Queue: 3 jobs
Job 1
Amino acid sequence: MSSYQIFRLLLRSNCGQQLLRSASVMCRQRNSHHSTTISTQHGLLHLQKEIISNQWISTTPCFAKGKDRGKDKKKVKGKQVFIDENLLSQLTNLDKLKTDFQECIDMMKEDFIKNLSLRSSTGAIESLPVKVDGDEYQVQDLAQINRKNPKTIVMKMDSFPQAIPAVLEALTKSGMDLNPQQDGTTIFIPVPKVTKEHREMLSKNARTLFIKYRDRIKDVQNSHIKKIRNKELEGGFSVDQIHEAVEMVTNMAQTHISQAEAMLSTKQAELLKS
């Protein structure tokens, strides 16, 4: 490729555009110091000679590197979305949206407290579901529960002795590593020692609960987005407004999912701490 062809290719690039501007500046500067008029074309010819003689031309394209483009994409993906509550409240029930999201977080916290205690708590046992004659109850509906000492929980089944087999089964399959012992209408539950296996099992249970509530948050998100898109069909709002509102709801959902993820990380660290 000749020097002239290289020069023409250079002028078509972004770098070439910068050199064109430099040539114009050079011409103006020389015009201010000399009485002889120098045209922009002459300036460019002079610049061409300087470029070739000084080897300014680089074979590297003047484009952003792949890794740099990736960084830009990440920045766009992680951008902050301003929540225009006025617009959002016109397209969906904003108060219900906030309440639905927060309820998912509150219920997850409650489940963590009840089901992920290193020591089997009375509260966790009280809320265990039990099926009796096709109906579902909680253990606390069928038994009087007391903690005899830190190592033993006592359940008195005097009022519903027929439910004892179902309660024993629920306790055994609770995932709390319980080994209930029956004495007449009384059930004694030794509180199990905290083993490494028990910690790991609870950590897995924590993730299962997180997934459950993460999916609920997404269900809330999808439900409200559907309502917003229906408004687009009804008319009265621009495509941009609908898109903006959908982005707001998605951002709010992701904020609550991130909060749930933080709760999971904290709980797992607590459970696995030796």
Job 2
Amino acid sequence: MPLRCHQHYQSANKSRVPNHASIFGEQLQAPSIAYPSPRTSFGSDYFTKILEDDLKAIVKPQYVDRIPKAVRGADKTVRTLIEANSSLDNLDEVLDILELNHIMDRDINLLSGGELQRFAIGTVCVQQADVYMFDEPSSYLDVKQRLSAAKVIRSLLRPDDYVICVEHDLSVLDYLSDFICVLYGKPAVYGVVTLPASVREGINIFLDGNIPTENLRFREESLTFRIAEAADEFMADRSRAFTYPSMEKTLGGFHLEIKDGDFTDSEIIVMMGENGTGKTTFCKLLAGAIQPDGNQKVPGMKVSMKPQKITPKFEGTVRQLFFKKIKTAFLLPQFQTDVVKPLKLDEFIDQEVKTLSGGELQRVAIVLALGLPADIYLIDEPSAYLDSEQRIIAARVIKRFIMHSKKTAFVVEHDFIMATYLADRVIVFDGAPGINARANTPESLLTGCNKFLKNLDVTFRRDPTNFRPRINKLNSQLDQEQKLNGNYFFLEDDAATKEPAVASKSS
């Protein structure tokens, strides 16, 4: 795929890459261009060093679940691998921030997706290099872990080093970055990299789909996060109410307590909590896949579930899979208009399922889940492997489908922007991850988000241009003011009255 940047530095040397680009003993090809240094027109120092073969680059790969197969050797414990790669004096700090100490003696083949992600980030961050590249460091991580990962990555900043990140969670990208380059084009055909912009300007250029300095529009529609507009568009008649009882479930050494709750048709309830607090277990209880302790009964309702992990086993094309599993829904014009076409499945509908990328599989899984007739749709991490634009489109598809079909959806989502866009109400999960957790009663978006963010000690503000939630820097003046007032999260109506103060402090 050709990649063009607005300054023509690639010229005859576009195939040259940093001479050491590897991780876990596996040689990886580093990009032939990098995000620029803001000190020069387009990182001329960087390209000079490339030509001199004078850069060592380390890459944190996108698909961390492939790491166990790439590692060779008899001893594959976290301790052995991370200590063998350590060449800086920050090992203890990295292990503490990423919460890796309790899995140091575990074989990497036994790690969960989130543990593999933190292990991969940690292994990169303890090494001496000139260029650090992180490809989607937030995948599999909850909100708290994403912020911890961002903190560790930012700790690598040194005057003569380069830190490059590819990230689709816009709130994490905002928190992590100093400068942003927007990439646009046609997937698998060509790509264009813009000049660097400030964090706020860069993200807003991407969302607006327009580069004002170039007078160039690369997307027809602007993307907005104004919840009120979404509510107007997806206005629904909620006429039926359902309840579920208080329940408890013990799985090995983990205990989950669930407070009784209710839900209505045409409603989306988002579950917020750290990894290991029982969100997927709650989904399985509602689905009837597992039974609660005691003799409590879950209402007998038809459930369709999109699982967290997607393993392609089907022999055949995507079209054949849809005809086998959801033929009735797939042939409906309304389903095509509301679900299939917005997710752009036509691009790969005749490809073999087993050859699909992570993002393509995710979109197929969403369509399969929504295509099954059900009363409740349980959707576990629909944003995984999707890029920023696809996440917003997927959120709109899910919201539109639930409103039009007059059904209910329970969604597990760690991308905070996507979660707040989807949610009518939220269930906050708290407690000790992996040991003892509690699912609270469903509550309003504002109340639930404030409770969840207070547990994380994080505050958000709203961007005045497109209303996207932005993370406040820890201990900044705005962060301290909001914590003092107990306002960890704003809806846009609340934020509008405070925006002049917010805007004067944001960049």
Job 3
Amino acid sequence: MSKLNRFVQSEQNLYIINSITTFKKSCISSLNNQFCNYCKQS
């Protein structure tokens, strides 16, 4: 059971990291996005 839990945890972490990366990419690519400045700062 613990092995499965660990696997699920790592999958969730990967998903979160991918989401953040995708968000930053889309942010940088659309210059009119109001989050753009925030993205560049972070």
